[in-house]
Design a protein that fits this description.
Blueprint (H helix, E strand, L loop, with lengths): L3 E5 L6 H10 L4 H10 L8 E7 L2 E9 L12 E7 L8 H15 L4 E6 L11 E8 L2 E12 L2
Antiparallel strand pairs: 1-2, 2-3, 3-4, 5-7, 6-7
């Protein structure tokens, strides 16, 4: 496969295509990303990164100032990491995360953060757990904040 990673803003022609892909994907958080994109909640230096395989959107992630944990003292966050089922196994998640981290480094950020309830998944991409919070949608669940240096 010869995927490429594109960093998108709302001005890019692919923006709505990625929003449609996120809305229709098998992951329930995709609808939240699609709403954020359409409502202009990803703006300024923030970006949506899309993995493109020819004309097909194979996956996506974001780099944003905030994530789902209100008041958490971290920024920026890599979020909404998703690779379509038919494109898995080609290290696209790693390439998306690396593209977002490299972009963050170009903006002067020394670290990037990621929020997840999955342990053992993001550590292989260089992340380590630094904090934990009750999930805003269910206080019985815990969301972990992971960090990775950008350089």
């Amino acid at each position: 496969m010869s995927e490429r990673i594109a960093a998108l803003t709302a001005a890019d022609a692919l923006w709505e295509s990625v929003a449609r892909c996120a809305e229709a994907c098998s992951w329930r958080a995709g609808k939240s990303l699609a709403s954020a994109m359409r409502e202009g909640r990803i703006a300024g230096w923030e970006r949506v990164f899309a993995a493109l395989d020819g004309g097909q959107i194979a996956g996506f992630c974001t780099l944003c100032a905030e994530d789902c944990l209100p008041g958490a003292p971290y920024t920026p966050y890599i979020g909404y990491v998703f690779v379509g089922e038919s494109h898995r196994g080609h290290r696209l998640s790693q390439r998306l995360i690396d593209a977002a981290a490299n972009y963050a480094a170009s903006l002067g950020f020394e670290r990037v953060y990621l929020v997840s309830d999955h342990h053992g998944l993001y550590e292989k991409y260089g992340f380590t757990a630094v904090d934990a919070y009750p999930a805003p949608w269910d206080a019985a669940e815990t969301e972990t904040v992971f960090v990775r240096n950008t350089r």
